[in-house]
Design a protein that fits this description.
129 residues; five-stranded parallel sheet; 5 helices; globular; binds [cytidine-5'-phosphate] glycerylphosphoric acid ester; Glycerol-3-phosphate cytidylyltransferase; nucleotidyltransferase activity; transferase; nucleotidyltransferase
């Protein structure tokens, strides 16, 4: 079967994340998600409200997701693709072009983001109430 992989923080899990994971699962038979650890998010310059263990447990509970692995560094994607026999790497088009180097190892797909929602937007609303 066809294996898809994606990576992300998935903080404050919301409909944009869910729609992406649904579309990714529809592209193949197995969906693996690399969830960014808290340490890696610090490297990305991203502050998260929800700790890694909880973000990973939530993503793992989504029916479209078959496996969750920790995303600890920028450099693990090629190893993950090889080890897990990945056919397609896919991610939202906010990353368009950034992962084209993976084309040597698998298909690379950038998908439309869901408009009008993001974890940072939710955070702003929460802090402003
Ligand atoms: N996403 C989306 N629509 C939104 C918000 C997010 O489709 N409204 C997608 C993003 O494009 C991404 C995934 O949901 O594919 C996870 O989003 P983030 O948690 O913001 O991921 P990010 O922090 O960008 O991490 O190595 C890759 C990075 O770890 C990606």
């Amino acid at each position: 079967g066809k294996t898809i992989i994606t990576y992300g923080t998935f903080d404050l899990f919301h409909i944009g994340h869910l729609k992406l994971l649904k579309r990714l699962k529809e592209m193949g038979d197995r969906l693996i998600v690399g969830v960014s650890t808290d340490e890696f998010n610090a490297l990305k310059g991203k502050r998260t409200l929800i700790p890694y263990e909880q973000r990973a447990e939530i993503v793992g509970a989504i029916k479209y997701v078959d496996e969750v692995i920790p995303e600890k560094s920028w450099d693990q994607k090629i190893d993950d693709i090889r080890r897990l026999n990945v056919d397609v790497f896919a991610i939202g088009n906010d990353w368009a072009g950034k992962f084209d180097f993976l084309k040597e190892y698998c298909e690379v797909v950038y998908l439309e983001r869901t408009k009008g929602i993001s974890s940072s937007q939710l955070k702003n609303v929460l802090t402003s109430v």
